[in-house]
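Sanity check

After download, print the first record. It should look like this:
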Amino acid sequence: MKRLLAALLGLAIAFGWAGWLGAIRDPVVTRYRVELAGLQRPLRIVHLSDLHGSNWDMPQVRLQRIVAQVNALRPDLVVITGDFHSSKIWDPPMRLEDALRPLTQLRAPLGVFSVPGNHDSPYWIRWVMARFGLRLLSGQIVDAGPVQIVGSDDLAIGQRPVAGVWAATALARADKPVIALVHEPDLWAKLPPRVGLLLAGHTHGGQISLLGWPRLDDFYERHRRGLFRNQAGQQMVVSAGIGTSIVPVRLGVAPEIVVVEAVPAQPGRNSGTDR
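Expected structure tokens:
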């Protein structure tokens, strides 16, 4: 019995150590190519999500490395889909200012735009971002040159997030494509028809994936991460994110920086279906 307990303890330590190393590794770069109707020239979008600033696995020094990695990708546009603050069972205190300050060094000629997540205080995230000059969109639309960006408030704790996206999208110009940002990919089922591309996070790609365990609910299980298309031709990219939630562990799901290479749509191309 003692040998069995010792073996189980050793296995738990091994998995915990592997998960910790997975949580603090440099993000992989995942690339998707999407066609956008109305886009006049190719556009490189770097998409970050779920940073979860934390003294466990996402201290300022790591955030600074990730910012340098993003800048080296030479993005035209950078978007961040929420969850800037920690969400661990317990975490050494880290101020929201410390989690956001490295993001002021992101460089993209068309701008850096963010939306709040379900772990971001509705008051403090707005106050600190404004203090640092970071653009937070929640029910607003902005013209970013070749595209228009509409941002959703968080679907879990925001104020009228779906109605806000619809109202903001109604203000879009007809001659430019619209890209929507939201933390939770649930907006996929409630997306205004005018939106050609939705960028989301929240799932962490499952964060831990061992032999099919654990399973998420049906929608999230089918949309853990990746590129999806619906019958209307709208597209969604769900990022596995960078940080961790609950525990500072990633197993079987690497942290990722997503690069979306958007190109003008080819006439007559089949839109495909949600996968």
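If your output differs, re-run the checksum step. Summary of this record's structure: Residues 2-264 form a domain with the Purple Acid Phosphatase; chain A, domain 2 fold (CATH 3.60.21.10).
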